[in-house]
Amino acid sequence: MGMSMRAVGLTSEAEPTYQKYAAVLRACLAAGIAKLPSEAASYFGSEYVEEYLLSERREIKLALNEWQTDAAEGFDLRVADIPAGVDIIRFSCSW
């Protein structure tokens, strides 16, 4: 069985644009509305009201450089390549 690693950047929940659209999504959830307004749908990348979008939208893909030797493998993340707005880098391993 193998293991995989990944890293994603997360924007802050305090970021104003995120807060605005998260409030719209939460209001739709509370009201039982099935589809987001077009501007919020564009922001979340989905027209459907789904709670998982609140966490998924915070994820930003990072430019990772994978490397491998005979005894190890991994990836490098250049600090200069971290996008503006990322305040957390989440590393995760899965088996």
Written account of the structure:
The protein has 95 residues and is α+β, with helices and mostly antiparallel strands. It has one domain. It is 28% helix and 32% strand. It is built from three helices and five strands. It has helices at residues 16-31, 38-44, 53-56; strands at residues 4-11, 59-61, 64-68, 73-77, 86-94. The strands form two sheets. The protein has a three-stranded antiparallel β-sheet, with no helix packed on it. The protein has a two-stranded antiparallel sheet with strand order 3-4. β3 and β4 (73-77) form a beta hairpin. The longest helix is centred in the N-terminal third of the chain and has 16 residues, at 16-31. The protein is elongated, with a radius of gyration of 17 Å. The chain starts with a strand and ends with a strand. The model has no long low-confidence stretch (mean pLDDT 89).
What is the structure about, briefly put?
The chain is an alpha+beta fold and 95 residues long. It contains 3 helices and 5 strands.
**SS-based structural class?**
alpha+beta
Tell me the overall shape.
elongated
Give the beta-strand count: 5
Give the strand content: 25-35%
- What does the average pLDDT come to? 89
Instruction: Spell out the helices and strands N to C.
Output: EHHHEEEE
Q: Name the strands of the widest sheet in spatial order.
A: 2-1-5
Oligomer: single chain
Measured as a percent range, the helix fraction is 25-40%
Radius of gyration: 17 Å
Q: Count up the helices.
A: 3
Outline the biggest β-sheet. 3 strands, antiparallel
Low-confidence segments, given as residue ranges, are: none
Give the N-to-C terminal Cα separation: 7 Å
The total number of structural domains is 1
